Amino acid sequence: MKEYKIIKIDSQNYNMFDDMIFWRMNRRERTNVEKAEAFNNNFDSSYLALSNPNLFVYAALETGRLVGWISIVYMPKVGKLNGLGHLYIDELWVAPLYRVQGIANKLMEKADELLNTTASAGIRLYVNTDNSNAKGLYEKCGFSESGIAYFMEKDK
């Protein structure tokens, strides 16, 4: 099994991360021309969000490009659990050609590392009921169902 380096996303590698986001959203990688255009316009709100101390974004590096990422948010609790908060896994994605190679497990290990280095009581996440592959991954990583919840959101 190939080894992938897991790196923290920051201002130095944000362009590569932005390329991967494009890949996920468009189901194709950017051309060199598109990369050059994106490089000139990379100071968007996503880039600025990386300065938030409660946001942790890690990605799997493979021969000069990123092929998967995990986004984790620390949410403090006031008055409950002696002030300990929870880490929430917001997103986990691996490019289709790189799945079933242990990358998602490596990214999940970063969440476990954060659990041990932050004031966190645990890790929480939501998984779509139709996504049995993701549910299986999370179960292998030690997660279990904890009731039934509805995912709701309000757009701006």
What does this 3D model show about the protein?
The protein is of the alpha+beta class and 156 residues long. The chain is 33% helix and 25% strand. The protein has 5 helices and 5 strands; from the N terminus they run βαααβββαβα. The chain has a 5-stranded mixed beta sheet with strand order 1-2-3-4-5, with helices on both faces. It is globular and about 50 Å long. It starts with a strand and ends in a 16-residue tail after the last helix.
- By DSSP, the count of extended strands is 5
Secondary structure class reads alpha+beta
Shape: globular
Cα radius of gyration in angstroms: 17 Å
Distance between the termini: 44 Å
What series of H and E elements makes up the topology? EHHHEEEHEH
Helix content: 25-40%
Instruction: Name the poorly predicted regions.
Output: none
Tell me the fraction of residues in β-strands, as a range. Answer: 25-35%
Q: How many alpha or pi helices?
A: 5
Mean pLDDT: 88
Spatial strand arrangement across the major sheet:
1-2-3-4-5
The main β sheet shows up as:
5 strands, mixed
Features:
156 residues; alpha+beta; 5 helices
Describe the secondary-structure layout:
Elements: E1 5-8, H1 14-26, H2 32-40, H3 45-49, E2 55-62, E3 65-75, E4 85-94, H4 103-117, E5 120-125, H5 132-140
Parallel strand pairs: 4-5
Antiparallel strand pairs: 1-2, 2-3, 3-4
